[in-house]
């Protein structure tokens, strides 16, 4: 029942791939998302041409997968539906050099993330539809799910609807890559971009690694062994998150001991307290007012000096070395038990 939600959700019955029967779809880029979109669309009966640079190492992969490959500029001029799946940081240059000169009125410009449109790094001309179909999953899963007759949840947004058909066309694309099998939620470019940046900075990537490091350091600095600290603060996190993924917080609290439940419920808000909440609000503000994106664009223009330094510091953290050692031991344990069962079978 979709009307229980605050947004509309679209499924296979709401979309028709044959809407794109008269289109050629140019898929620019053959990385994580690109290969999945190109292959899924192709197998859904859509006419696909992959656009890659002459010297791109992905060319042979796309050709071996049975797809037609040409340059990005040529792909755009052949196509009426252009799916931009090169990295976000190179999209403005690819747009300027290969897309814009070859776009025609009536074409659709399709994205899997709204960053460059929302922050005006790409300003499409009038007469062109601008849409987003963004699978909420890494590309290899978009592909694997499709092959297994399963779907990948996705987001859909319309930025420019000059033809009047942008929603139907975007839904056809979403169906072609398998997203409507699982469900597609309607959003806006602004909501998708700002919530995506916030989620990865505050919770998923930034917040969680920082929480893990602080926990690990607190134990190790107090004299506990690094191995114990690693298991307690990093390794077990997956088991906890799996329970939350399956059944929300309730399933996790049900599965842990009463001692863990009481300790967590009574101490959690002391650890992640009001100051963390204020920091989150500040982080969200920097996303909303464009400060983060400006910083990221300048960082790329100057050769990524801070990014390189931050990456190096993260790599050098003790937890990474301890983890590598322990994961090797456990990979060995898993492998040997797999071998045993293989031999027994
Ligand atoms: P990627 O880094 O995996 O792949 C990039 C592809 O672009 C490669 O094939 C590369 O050869 C090609 N490329 C790089 N520079 C190029 C250039 N100058 N000209 C032409 N081709 C070039 O990229 P990705 O992670 O699939 O991201 C593509 C889009 O999908 C981005 O907008 C991203 O935000 C979005 N997205 C990604 C994911 C994900 O899980 N990776 C999830 C949702 C949305
Ligand atoms: Mg064209
Ligand atoms: Mg993101
Ligand atoms: Mg425990
Ligand atoms: Mg319990």
TrEMBL record:
Mg(2+) 2 binds at residues 196, 232, 236. GO terms for molecular function: isomerase activity; ketol-acid reductoisomerase activity; magnesium ion binding; NADP binding. Its EC number is 1.1.1.86. This is Ketol-acid reductoisomerase (NADP(+)). Its cofactor is Mg(2+). InterPro entries: 6-PGluconate_DH-like_C_sf, KARI, KARI_C, KARI_N, KARI_prok, NAD(P)-bd_dom_sf. Keywords: Amino-acid biosynthesis, Branched-chain amino acid biosynthesis, Isomerase, Magnesium, Metal-binding, NADP, Oxidoreductase. Coiled coil: none annotated. Pfam families: KARI_C, KARI_N. It comes from the Archaea. PANTHER family: KETOL-ACID REDUCTOISOMERASE, MITOCHONDRIAL. The keyword Amino-acid biosynthesis applies. The lineage of its organism: Archaea, Methanobacteriati, Methanobacteriota, Stenosarchaea group, Halobacteria. Pathway: Amino-acid biosynthesis; L-valine biosynthesis; L-valine from pyruvate: step 2/4; Amino-acid biosynthesis; L-isoleucine biosynthesis; L-isoleucine from 2-oxobutanoate: step 2/4. Belongs to the ketol-acid reductoisomerase family. Mg(2+) 1 binds at residues 196, 200. Binds 2 magnesium ions per subunit. It catalyses: (2R)-2,3-dihydroxy-3-methylbutanoate + NADP(+) = (2S)-2-acetolactate + NADPH + H(+); (2R,3R)-2,3-dihydroxy-3-methylpentanoate + NADP(+) = (S)-2-ethyl-2-hydroxy-3-oxobutanoate + NADPH + H(+); (2R)-2,3-dihydroxy-3-methylbutanoate + NAD(+) = (2S)-2-acetolactate + NADH + H(+). The active site is at 113.
């Amino acid at each position: 029942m979709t009307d229980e939600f605050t947004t509309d959700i679209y499924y296979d019955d709401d979309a028709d791939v044959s809407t794109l029967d008269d289109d050629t779809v140019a898929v620019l880029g053959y990385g994580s998302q690109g290969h999945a979109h190109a292959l899924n669309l192709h197998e859904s009966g859509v006419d696909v041409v992959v656009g890659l640079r002459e010297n791109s190492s992905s060319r042979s992969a796309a050709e071996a997968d049975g797809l037609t490959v040409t340059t990005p500029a040529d792909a755009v001029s052949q196509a009426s539906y252009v799916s931009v799946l090169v990295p976000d940081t190179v999209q403005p240059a690819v747009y300027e050099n290969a897309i814009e000169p070859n776009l025609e009125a009536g074409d659709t410009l399709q994205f899997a993330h709204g960053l460059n449109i929302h922050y005006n790094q790409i300003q499409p001309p009038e007469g062109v539809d601008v849409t987003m179909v963004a699978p909420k999953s890494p590309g290899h899963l978009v592909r694997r799910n499709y092959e297994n007759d399963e779907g990948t949840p996705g987001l859909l947004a319309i930025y420019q609807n000059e033809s009047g058909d942008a929603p139907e066309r975007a839904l056809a694309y979403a169906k072609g890559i398998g997203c409507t099998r699982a469900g597609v939620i309607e959003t806006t470019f602004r909501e998708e971009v700002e919530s995506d940046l916030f989620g990865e900075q505050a919770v998923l990537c930034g917040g969680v690694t920082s929480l893990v490091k602080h926990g690990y350091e607190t134990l190790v600095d107090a004299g506990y062994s690094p191995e114990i600290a690693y298991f307690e603060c990093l390794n077990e996190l997956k088991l906890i998150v799996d329970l939350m993924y399956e059944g929300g917080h309730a399933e996790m609290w049900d599965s842990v001991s009463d001692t863990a439940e009481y300790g967590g419920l009574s101490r959690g808000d002391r650890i992640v307290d009001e100051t963390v909440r204020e920091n989150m609000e500040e982080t969200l503000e920097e996303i909303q007012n464009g400060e983060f994106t400006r910083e990221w664009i300048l960082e790329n223009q100057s050769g990524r000096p801070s990014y390189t330094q931050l990456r190096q510091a993260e790599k050098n953290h003790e937890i990474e070395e301890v983890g590598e050692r322990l994961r090797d031991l456990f990979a060995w344990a898993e492998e040997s038990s797999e071998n045993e069962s293989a031999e027994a079978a």
